[in-house]
Amino acid sequence: MLGTEKGRNGARQKSRPTNNLSPETTNSPITFIPEPRKHVRPGRAFEMRVLGVPEEQPRKDDFKEPRTPTQYEREEREAINNQPKEWDPTSPPTNLSQKLFNVVKGEIEKNHPKLLELFTLKFYSTVDSNLDHNFGVDALFRLEDQFGNSYASATLDLTTSLRKMSGGKANFPVFPSDFLPKNIERLGKMVRACLATCVATRSNGCLGNRRPQYELLIEN
């Protein structure tokens, strides 16, 4: 219940609630969203918290449907070449991105260890890029060879919109609650299964996958 306080004219007014949530004090789904500034919406604050911000915002292309694999590949390359300052795709710098990277890598090591002998797991931030604007991809995991060629990918859309629970343009919508311990393990399993399936089917798996049922491949 909101408290009351006296205003300058002596009238009693309702006091405003404060946001004192932190990972140590609550398990709320919005635990990991910092209190945004007036011009930052919650979804954007979530993206900033996990992925950082690119040094420059690439040009947003205007093209009509259908979006093609060629356009996707071009914009993926552009996004990968425009990573946030000091972003290391083999060791992401933010706490939450590092946590997710470690979970996914641990799942691959446990279930498909040979993949990490052949490829390097990388996690890219693509927020604010053309890949984000035109394909809804905020981040992606890739398995790359020594020359940087991608043999598998899993795309993520970081969001606070419940409308995306049923799926979106990216492989997996990711919510703040997905970073809670049990949920991040499940997300890690799905990303691992996605990458392994791409390698097994010789499909890079980037474009057109709307929440594929990789859960069927996850061991109980």
Low-confidence stretches: 14-37, 206-220
| Total separate domains | 1
Q: Assign the structural class, choosing from mainly alpha, mainly beta, alpha/beta, alpha+beta, or little secondary structure.
A: alpha+beta
Residues in helix, %: 25-40%
Give your account of this protein's structure.
- There is one protein chain.
- The strands form 2 sheets. The chain has a 4-stranded mixed beta sheet with strand order 3-4-5-6. The chain has a two-stranded antiparallel ribbon with strand order 1-2.
- Helix content is 32%, strand content 14%.
- It is α+β, with helices and mostly antiparallel strands.
- It has helices at residues 42-51, 69-80, 95-111, 115-118, 130-135, 181-201; strands at 4-6, 12-14, 120-125, 139-144, 150-158, 172-174.
- The chain starts with a strand and ends in a 19-residue tail after the last helix.
- The chain has 6 helices and 6 strands; from the N terminus they run ββααααβαβββα.
- It is globular and about 45 Å long.
- The longest helix is centred in the last third of the chain and has 21 residues, at 181-201.
- Helix 3 (95-111) crosses helix 6.
- It has one domain (42-54, 67-217).
